[in-house]
UniProtKB/TrEMBL annotation:
Residues 285-305 are annotated as: Disordered. NCBIfam families: SCO6745_fam_HTH (NF047719). This is SalK. It comes from Streptomyces alanosinicus.
Length: 305
């Protein structure tokens, strides 16, 4: 866990960019649910058919057996056919409650394997779990359905499960906020991904293929963005497009600030410092997929040293 010097450095970096700095540190830890082998073994054991059925079951389980249309709407960037190939069939293999129990067991095992039993059993790790849970419990989930569903879940006793679930609630809180910003900016699912790819934050082909959009959908979104003056003929961002991307991220950061205001400056900085080595360990593990599909940015924000 962090030394006093490392803690001071992270606290200084976080001071003016809390929501984004925390996201950059909790997103990699949350993402273990999508890439840790322990999680894939758990979904296979439940009977899920392939990665995507497991993905949608794991992420949608807090909503209960919600219709595919609700999941498509709340996840935002996936084509409906990607969702309907997984749901509601997944609930025929395991109930949402069974999936929720399995994901906590799997994440507890995954984090113990990756970080080590000594780290997971440490006082610092338990402190991180409690701080994350406090921040998540203090989040305003009005208009944020995925965050609200996760926030309503029972507090896990095991520190690793508690840390992951707290971070997941915070992650979905930010994600719900981001979707609201995109809707307000008139950016549909594909337009949002095209802009993100044009900004160099994620691999466009990876986004299109994994979210199951056809090339014609991508091309149509590109044309719409050009007509709005946001994309140049070569597919790069125009100055107006760069401004829109920056505004989307700034508004998302602002909308995601609430939990950190509730947690307070000192405890927020402490959580960031405790998460820093965990995020680095995940990033260095080789588990995260190439192409940065989530789009975690560095840009003008505090860079890792």
């Amino acid at each position: 866990m962090p030394t006093a010097r490392q803690t001071d450095a992270v606290e200084e970096a976080v001071a003016d960019t809390r929501a984004r700095a925390l996201w950059e540190r909790y997103e990699p830890v949350h993402d273990l649910v999508y890439c840790a082998p322990e999680v894939r073994r758990a979904t296979d054991a439940l009977g899920m058919r392939g990665f995507w059925m497991g993905y949608f079951a794991l992420r949608a389980a807090p909503l209960g057996a919600a219709p595919p249309s609700v999941v498509t709407s709340s996840f935002y960037v996936f084509h409906a056919t990607r969702v309907t190939r997984a749901l509601p069939d997944a609930w025929g293999y395991a109930t949402p409650a069974e999936v929720l129990a399995a994901r906590l067991d799997a994440l507890d095992a995954a984090m113990t394997a990756l970080f080590g039993a000594e780290i997971v059993g440490s006082a610092d790790f338990a402190e991180a779990a409690d701080l994350a849970w406090a921040a998540a419990a203090g989040a305003d989930t009005a208009g944020r359905v995925l965050a609200a569903a996760n926030q309503a879940l029972k507090r896990p006793d095991r520190p690793a499960a508690r840390l992951w679930q707290g971070l997941t609630t915070l992650r979905e809180h930010r994600g719900d906020s981001h979707v609201a910003v995109l809707v307000g900016q008139g950016l549909g699912p594909v337009e949002a991904m095209v802009l993100k790819a044009a900004a160099g934050e994620s691999d466009g082909a990876l986004l299109r293929e994994t979210r199951k959009w056809e090339p014609v959908d991508w091309d149509a979104a590109t044309i719409r963005l050009r007509e709005r003056g946001l994309l140049a003929a070569d597919g790069s961002l125009t100055p107006a497009g760069a401004n829109v991307r920056a505004e989307v991220e700034a508004l998302t950061d602002a909308a995601a600030e609430g939990p950190w205001t509730v947690l307070g400056t000192d405890r927020t900085a402490r959580l960031a410092a405790l998460l820093e080595p965990l995020a680095r360990r995940v990033e260095d593990s080789g588990l995260l997929p190439p192409g940065n599909p989530v789009g975690v940015t560095r840009g003008p924000y505090p860079a890792r040293r």
